[in-house]
Amino acid sequence: MELAIRHRRLRKDENIRRMVRETYVNVNNLMFPLFVLEGKGIKKEVVSMPGVYQYSLDMLYYEIEKTIKLKIPAVLLFGVPQQKDEFGTQAYNPEGVIQRALRGIKNRFPEILLAADVCLCGYTSHGHCGIADEHGKIENDSSVKLLVDSALSYVQAGADIIAPSDMMDGRIGEIRKALEKNRYHDTVIMSYSAKYASAFYGPFRDAACSAPAFGDRKTYQMDCSNIKEAFREVRNDIEEGADIIMVKPALPYLDVVHAVSDFFDVPVAAYSVSGEYSMLKSAALNGWINEKAAVLETITSIKRAGANIIITYYAQQIAQWLKEI
Ligand code: PBG
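^ thats the input. predicted complex w/ PBG below
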């Protein structure tokens, strides 16, 4: 009884709750993903992600401005090219959609950090994250070469952070080597280290137009049953030169976020992915949950689990809500 009363004393009113609260989400923890298309004057809503858009570069600038005003420190850019081919050529074309976006934003808004996702799935005609051989098997080493070319061209175009999400083996080491060789000593690598083969990426594949035309990603992304494997991936990536490691998705893998952030001494990012967004958004649009309360609770849980950086499609909305609290 006495114990129960002690618990209550610390929950009695908002002032005391504020004082003893263990976890605060801060705008500084947020990273905002954005999709950029070719063309002009385009702001196209992603059907499976209401409130998330694909932007042509001219329209993207307004979003970047808004993101800066909200004091969000970084954006994560995904390119949605018009042309795709077997080799994902547009991923490493210096005049590609993402390279032009990086240059344009860097020139106009040097104050925001630019992270660029590195992967071939948005650029290959078959939608896989690497190059496929004649049997549809994804070739690791030739894919890594193209990923290195992509990463270098993003850094040349102005990316501050390189975020490889392809899950090919050895790509972090090869990218780091190429960066050093080209004297990009300051480029941060944020590696999607523990990236699970997840059903929660479904809506993203609408947003990035990157659904695989055959098979699935289980031969290179992780099995949801495994956590030791996450440790191996993370350890490898740190040894190969990653500065920040990522666990993805976030919510179904909070145990992984927690274990990894406890064990390793590098910053941990957690990606609250498209399916997590769509679940919350669709329930909110139906009036089935209180959106603000549910989103802030979710994001607090991700931080409590140990993530320093939280990548979320709700970043602008969260930043706005945090200002109002
Ligand atoms: C590219 C990539 C994916 C996501 C980020 N980078 C999709 C995938 O691997 O299928 C998912 C992001 C999300 O669902 O929000 N490989």
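The chain has a mean pLDDT of 95.
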